[in-house]
Amino acid sequence: MANLGRMLRQLRAERSRAAKELERLDEAIAVFEKLVAPNPGREARRGPTGGRKPSAATRRKMSKAQKARWAKLRQEGAGKG
To answer: What sign has the CA pseudo-torsion 30, 36, 40, 46?
Structure first.
């Protein structure tokens, strides 16, 4: 039983050491986040979409969907006349 008690103390000590290490890492991360913070002027130049553009596959899907909408409108227009 003495071994189990010693192991428990060691585990608690290791847990405490790990918690302190996590606190130091959190502080370091906070410092780096302040240094690497996005430049507000730079975001404005990229536009409202954030500078991202859809992939080729997504553009193809969008094109097919729009062409289907146009075809539907043409059919509805032809039926009225």
So the answer is: negative
